[in-house]
Amino acid sequence: MEFHSQRQMIADEVHARPFQQLSAPLKVMHFAVMITEHEPGSIREAISELFQICGAGEITADQSFSFQSAGELALRWEAHTEFYTLTIYYEGAEQNWSQTIPGLPTRWSDMIPGEMITGVQLLVRTADGENHSRVPEGVFGDTQVIGSNVMRGAATVWTDFKAQGEFGLDRILVQDNHLHGYQCGRLLQRLCEIDTYRAVALLGLEPARKVMRQISSLDRELAEITTQLSQLEKGKESDTLDALMNLAARGEEISAETANRFSASDAYYAVVRMRISELEESRVEGLQTIEQFIDRRVDPAMRTWRAAAARLDRLSERVARASNLLRSNIELSTEQKIHGLLSSMNKRTRRQLTLQAKLETFSIIVVTYYLFDLVERTIRHMTSGKPEEIAINWLSYSLPAIVLLVWWYVRRVTKEFKSDD
Fold first, then answer.
1. Residues 230 and 149 in one domain
2. Which tens digit of pLDDT belongs to each residue from 95-154?
3. What is the SS3 assignment for 25?
């Protein structure tokens, strides 16, 4: 038995992105950065340099994920298709909401390539009172707080999903009620992924709004063309068909530009829903849960790009139906023209046959004349005297028979041609 060439890769993939074993007190800053025009190799080199400056090891060229600890500091980097994430963990005594962490180099953010799309700052602390569900004071100010008990009550989470500070990070406060083992690592990773995938999913919103405006314009043009179909003048079909083909091309162009974005947004939002379900939220009295917040704030955007995609499909179908109607009209007009052309050709053929029938009489006379003359000349050359006179007399008497014979032969020949017609 031989091993499959991808056996080791498949086995490693199952353990490629493990959860970390974390505990309170803990400070976390998580960044999601769009790759834009940077090459994956140059991004990996820049992040690897940051790792090494912080005291961690190098990221190799074949890695798309790396988690390394350097004393009180730990760094996690994960590459995705169109973005990557960088998470910084700090387990030291200095736990506050300042968006800086001891151990990071000066101007460390300048070393991170790409465009930051979202980020989240988390503080994990142990429960210090009996009322685990009370909203902590002095953290979120006057903003609306979202919160719930998660992981079957093992922790309580509060956030306002409002970007603040130097890097515009969402604040999430996690209270450790009785987390154990890898639960804290799983919880923090899920919260970071909810924030990340929520942001990248919403990248489909602006294209959807733009598409809605474009589709509305195309709908008006299609309505005008469809109205004109019933009153279309002969000879104008080609111009109308060109207009419909132009509409179809513009619709397909819009679809090609947005299909990948809408599909990606659907996939990202599916991850958000999955991560929320994994939180196992239970309601805190008086607070909106994370699931309710996402349903209220993100679902409308989700419906917007789905509606845009559906309108694009309906536009294509309407253009196709209008094109089919116009083509049917053109085909019917063409068939009518062909029918008229064939009718005129049939009339001309009948005239030719009538003329040919009238000319048959002249053909009979001519053939009879030449046949009579040929026989007479033959008799005169082959005989002389009285036999010649007798033969010529008989020839003269047989003239009616010759005429009938020639007439029968000509009719027989022309009858074959008429039967072919």
1. no
2. 889 998 988 998 999 999 999 999 999 999 988 765 566 788 878 888 889 999 999 999
3. coil
Domain span at 89? 18-181
Give the Cα separation of 104 and 99 in Å (integer).
Answer: 11
At 1-20, the pLDDT tens digits run 787 778 777 766 666 677 88
Single-letter amino acid, residue 61: A
- CA-based end-to-end distance of the chain: 78
**Would you call 100 exposed, middle or buried from its count of C-beta atoms within 10 A (0-12, 13-18, 19+)?**
middle
What does R_g of the chain's alpha carbons equal in angstroms? 46
- Overall number of domains in the chain: 3
Q: Tell me the three-class secondary structure of 280-294, residue by residue.
A: CCEECCCCECHHHHH
Give the CA diameter of the chain: 159
β-strand partners of 164: 169
Q: Are 43 and 84 in contact (CB under 8 A)?
A: yes
